[in-house]
Specification:
mainly alpha, three-stranded antiparallel β-sheet, globular, Arc Repressor Mutant, subunit A
């Protein structure tokens, strides 16, 4: 085994810290500014981007990098606010789909400026000297080369 170089070790440590602190900062900004968690925002965002604004619960959980039980808790909170409904899947009638409501889309639109400002402050403002397409490609390779965590383990809640 070849040990990590000083630069590689520095990158690993910086990456590890950023992977923990940036989502926490984005979450804190959304909570403070909108009373909405990053996980709730992300669920609404994914629903807004698909045809029919509807996704099977397992697909939504996967898109949000959450377990199905974690996604169910988030959808329950969103459902209680009238932002999402659950409907039986028209494909097989067995599964449930999360469906974005008009109120949910409106809520997402109101939260978007807060999230955008947070992303700019905590991420984009620090990347000006980097070649974003190269960094993006590297991050996509990291994700595609790394097996997903245990589906029962939650990444964000």
């Amino acid at each position: 085994m070849v040990p990590l170089s000083v630069e590689e070790e520095a990158f690993l440590r910086a990456w590890s810290r950023a992977a923990l602190t940036v989502p926490r900062a984005l979450d804190a900004d959304l909570l403070a500014g909108q009373g909405m968690s990053l996980s709730e925002y992300t669920a609404l965002m994914h629903l807004s981007e698909v045809p029919g604004q509807s996704l099977r619960m397992s697909d939504l959980a996967s898109a949000c990098a959450l377990s199905l039980s974690g996604m169910s808790r988030i959808v329950s909170r969103l459902e209680a606010q009238g932002l999402v409904t659950r409907e039986r899947s028209s494909c097989d009638g067995r599964g449930l789909n999360a469906v974005l409501t008009d109120a949910g889309l409106g809520r997402l639109r109101r939260a978007w400026p807060t999230h955008l400002a947070s992303v700019r402050r905590h991420m984009m403002d620090h990347l000006s000297e980097l070649d974003l397409p190269v960094v993006t490609a590297a991050l996509e390779r990291f994700a595609s080369d790394t097996p997903c965590a245990d589906p029962q383990q939650e990444v964000l809640t």
